[in-house]
Design brief:
alpha/beta, Jelly Rolls, binds beta-L-fucopyranose
Length: about 450
């Protein structure tokens, strides 16, 4: 396939060359910043925690919400140590119990003896997030099994909006509002009213799942499909597109519990804790395919993350850091089959500089091209990371990677979309010359990053 022999390594021009045209819908600055966070922690904590149940029915006595050694800061500190950049907390789950002192309804922390009815679990988590630099997200369940107003949708909508107002003002800044669709079949909500209110009170907040900004991946296993497009047809009612069907940037989030099948803490749930190997598999099949990973860890009846889960998480974070801390491609000599306008601004070296605002791009009409990495001596690696420059839209449809081994080019990885990120895992490769070949794209490819890594010895060989 390498007919193009005009290897461009010589002097590049510094004259201004226009960047490639944007292709299709692009991320908002908030969506892009969110995608760059890559992974976050989900914490399900509430009245269910005290009953070994996933969904209590809204009749449990609020006095039973009684954490013994609540420490919301510990959740945030743990997430931070793992390298997670955001944390989403269940302010109210389907049972209707609020872990913050809402002024609406009577089913909340104020009715619990915890801290004499003066406790506010969300406050501690929110303050720690803000202090430690994590983005705070709130989960507020539309489905409410306790609130008698639920059966009167327009009245319930007002209450729901009043609670959203509390959350977005008392705990600001909130970066993500997570609307779960479970249990709501047949119920009519004022979605547009919820969205407008969020836009008004927290214009930077992203509305996830039953919302227009972040898409649910469609399973609770943490697995994205192998071909992942960020542009989707949004069928939810969104302001300005009443009937849906509008194509927009709609990045995916993979939510998955660290204990299989358990979002809330269960006293006998430790056996369900996923192994390091399973967590890494999830990581590669979510973040490694261009989606965000939202890993749920359930605080226990003390109000802290269980010891075993914390250990596993820290181990997981360390291994990821170890694997991706040294980009071997950074020291390569780069060349390409095509460079946009022969300009330095779009040179292949931009794809190995570690910067978000520079990228390698080709001329208009060139939708197939390769970039070569050349080293002074053999490099040994088993992970390849590719990233597109998303402000120009998602463009690449197919790609492959070759290494020059022996006397020949050998294909070592193939794939379809790249998007925010694509990580290839492969058996160890030893080579001096590697080519990333974009074989098909909707528009001239714009590649922001290429990385070659050697996996931590704590990862199981692929
Ligand atoms: C589901 C809910 O029913 C589970 O309890 C959990 O909150 C999960 C994140 O979403 O739809």
């Amino acid at each position: 396939m390498f007919m193009v022999m005009g290897l461009l390594t010589g002097a590049l021009l510094t004259a201004t060359v226009a960047p490639p045209e944007i292709y299709g819908p692009v991320p908002s600055p908030q969506q892009l910043a969110w995608q760059r966070m890559e992974y976050g922690m989900f914490c399900h904590f509430g009245i269910n925690t005290f009953f070994d149940e996933e969904w209590t029915d809204g009749t449990k006595d609020p006095k039973t919400f009684l954490p013994t050694e609540f420490n919301g800061r510990q959740w945030v500190e743990t997430a931070k140590k793992v390298g997670m950049q955001y944390l989403i907390v269940t302010a109210k789950h389907h049972d209707g119990f609020s872990i913050y002192p809402t002024e609406h309804g009577d089913y909340n922390v104020k009715a619990s003896p915890w801290r004499d009815g003066k406790g506010d679990a969300l406050r501690e988590v929110a303050d720690a997030c803000h202090e430690l630099g994590l983005m705070l997200g709130v989960y507020l369940s539309p489905w409410d099994r306790h609130d008698p107003l639920y059966d009167d949708p327009p009245v319930y909508d007002e209450r729901f909006k009043a609670m959203l107002t509390e959350l977005l003002t008392w705990y600001a800044p909130v970066g993500e509002v997570w609307f779960d669709g479970a249990g709501s079949k047949g119920h009519v909500y004022d979605w547009n009213g919820y969205y407008s209110l969020i836009r008004e009170l927290a214009p930077d907040a992203l509305i996830a799942i039953c919302g227009p900004d972040i898409r649910w991946i469609g399973n609770e296993d943490g697995l994205a499909p192998d071909t992942l497009w960020n542009v989707q047809e949004v069928t939810l009612p969104i302001p300005g597109a009443e009937s849906g069907g509008e194509k927009r940037w709609y990045p995916s989030e993979c939510d998955v519990p660290i204990r299989k099948g358990q979002w809330f803490y269960h006293t006998d749930g430790a056996a369900n804790l996923r192994s390091l190997e399973e967590l890494l598999e999830i990581y590669y099949r979510s973040v490694g395919l261009g989606a965000a990973l939202l890993l749920n860890v359930s605080p226990d009846r003390r109000g802290q993350l269980p010891q075993a889960d914390t250990q596993r998480l820290l181990e997981f974070g360390e291994v990821i850091r170890d694997t991706f801390n040294n980009n071997l491609a950074a020291r390569a000599l780069t060349s390409a089959s095509n460079i946009r306008g022969n300009s330095k601004a779009f040179a292949p070296a931009n794809a190995t500089d570690g910067l978000e605002d520079t990228y390698w791009a080709t001329n208009d009409g060139i939708h197939e091209a390769w970039l070569q990495l050349l080293f002074g001596e053999d490099r040994v690696f088993d992970r390849i990371v590719l990233q597109e420059h998303l402000p120009l839209g998602q463009r690449v449809k197919a790609h492959e990677i070759q290494a020059f081994v022996g006397n020949d080019w050998k294909t070592i990885a193939t794939g379809t979309t790249i998007g925010y990120k694509r990580i290839h895992r492969l058996p160890e490769v030893k080579a001096r010359r590697i080519r990333v070949h974009i074989t098909d794209a909707f528009a001239p490819p714009a590649i922001e990053q290429i990385g070659l890594y050697k996996a931590s010895p704590r990862e199981t060989p692929y």
